[in-house]
Amino acid sequence: MQRHPDRREAGRTLAHALGALAGRPDVVVLGIPRGGVPVAFEVAEQLGAPLDVLTVRKLGAPTNPEFAIGAVGPDGVLVLDDATVSWLGLTRAEVDEVIARERRELARRDARYRGERPRPELADRTVVIVDDGLATGHTMAAAVDAVRAAHPARVISAVPVAARDACERLRITADECVCVLLPEPLDGVGHWYVEFPQTTDAEVIALLDAARTRVGGAR
Questions:
Q1: How many domains does the chain have?
Q2: Residue 8 CB: number of other CB atoms within 10 A?
Q3: How much is the pTM?
Q4: What is the DSSP letter of 195?
Q5: Which of 106, 52, 51 shows the shortest CA–CA distance to 78?
Q6: Residue 117 pLDDT > 90, yes or no?
Q7: Residue 217 pLDDT exceeds 80
Q8: Which domain CATH number covers 48?
Q9: Which residues form the domain of 84?
Q10: Exposed/middle/buried for 7, CB within 10 Å: 0-12, 13-18, 19+?
């Protein structure tokens, strides 16, 4: 199974898989910052759709932040893996501390990326939520929950690579889950990219500015 060269090239490949949506006026693409935005930029570019961000934060275990126990999204959205929390023996206070910290970071990033711009109108639209990959799928699940609250016509989860079980769970939550690569085992999202540097806030803002220049942003 061939790895993606980088996030931008992965976005072009993902856009090909979503080709039936190209040119449709009801489509809006939302990238999950930070790493999902370069992928989403290419998807939006190829589909001719507006691009915006949907700020969602993974909840990492207190002793291992890379180990996901859930995710938080805008408007109080919370996805928590109760079985994993129990298995790790985490107290409610420990979980609440992680949630509070990630909600603060979510608010900081949303303010930095969006500024004074309102969120895009999603009612009755086909919303494509893009990230650079799915491991547990918690972050994407929180994103789908947040978008559902805006009453879209359809919600599509789209990623260049995913763990098979995460993609199957998202097919229940979202109307459709598009995953280009489904390796077993996953061995981490970054393993399936030749180049996988950390995306910076500055890169996210530059891509959003470029997308708004092209189509006037999500409306």
A1: 2
A2: 15
A3: 0.91
A4: -
A5: 106
A6: no
A7: no
A8: 3.40.50.2020
A9: 59-112
A10: buried
